Amino acid sequence: MSGCDPIARAVERTDAPSANANNALACTTLRCDADDDRANASTAARASTDISTTWTTPNHTRPGYISAEPLEHLALAGVTPEAVTDVVFTHLHFDHVGWATNEDEPVFVNATYRAHAADLEYFDDPQLDEYQTGKLMGAVLTPRERLAPVRDRIVPFDGDVTLAPGVDIRSAPGHTPGSAVVVLSSGLDRALLLGDVVHCPVELVDDEWAAIGDVDPVLARRTRELWSAEAAGERTITAAPHFPGMEMGRLLGGTGTRRWIFT
In sequence order, what are the beta bridge partners of 91? Predict the structure, then answer.
C-alpha cells in the first residue's frame, strides 16, 4: 500500500492465570510520505496508533509493568521516539495509553497526541470506576494520571478527521464514548485498524460475540456490525490491537455467512 505503510508492530502476549485465552496487545506504526508542514525534505512523517501499551507481566505478579517492546520494535524499524510526529489513540483505556509517558515524562517528545474529545471528557473523571480505569486489572496509573504529563499536548478530534493523505480517523463509539478506527487507503485498497471495536476476529464473523468492557454494549454492537460490513471484501485488510500476533486478515462475505482468513 503506497502512501502510508505499517513499518513496525510491537506485540506483547500475556497469559492471565484466570483466562481461557492469551491476550495479545499491539500497536501499529506508519511511515507516511508527506509534504505537509509536519515533515521536512529528509524525514517522512510518522503516525502511530495506540503506540503506547501498558499491561502486566504474564503471571500478573508485577501490576503495571511496562514492556519496552514497542520502543525496541521502533528501533528495529529505524524509528526513534523523537521521529514520531503523531500518536493517535483509538481510545483511552489504560492498555492503549501506557507508553504515552514514562516516569512522568513524554516518550514521544516531538509528537502531537490525538484523542477523541468524548474520551478525554469521560476518562478525565476522577471518580471513574476501577474497571474502566484499569485499576481492577492491575494498572498502577489511571489513564487520567498516565496522560497528565502530555495533557496540554493532546489535540482533541470530534467526528471523522483526515490526519494525512490516506490516513483517516473515524468515530466508532460504544466500547468507549470516543472510540475511533484508523482507515488507511490507497486507491481501492484499504486497511482498517479497528482499535477495540473488536477484540477477536470472531466478533467480525458472528454478531452475537462480544468482549466485556464496553461502556455502552448496545451501541458497541451496532458499531461492530457497521465495521463488519466495512471490513468485508478482498480489497480490505483488517487488524486490531488484541488480535493474536497483530496479524492482519480479510473478512470474506458470502450468502448469509462471513469468513475470516489471516493474510
Answer: none
HSE on the CB side for 100, CA within 13 Å? 32
pLDDT tens digits, one per residue of 98-140:
889 989 999 999 999 999 999 999 999 999 999 999 999 888 8
Domains identified in the chain and CATH numbers = 4-262 (3.60.15.10)
Q: Are 178 and 116 in contact (CB under 8 A)?
A: yes
**26 confidence band (pLDDT: 50, 70, 90):** low
Radius of gyration of the chain (CA): 17
The per-residue pLDDT for range 147-166, each reduced to its tens digit, is 999 999 999 999 999 998 99
Q: How confident is the model at residue 18 (pLDDT cuts 50, 70, 90)?
A: very low
DSSP code string of 11-30: EEEE--TT-SS-EEEEEEEE
Burial of 63 (0-12, 13-18, 19+ CB in 10 A): middle
In whole angstroms, give the CA distance from residue 69 to residue 121: 30
Question: By three-state DSSP, how is residue 143 classified?
Answer: helix
Spatial distance between the Cα atoms of 207 and 202, rounded to a whole number of angstroms? 9
**Pairing mode, strands 45-49 and 86-88:** parallel
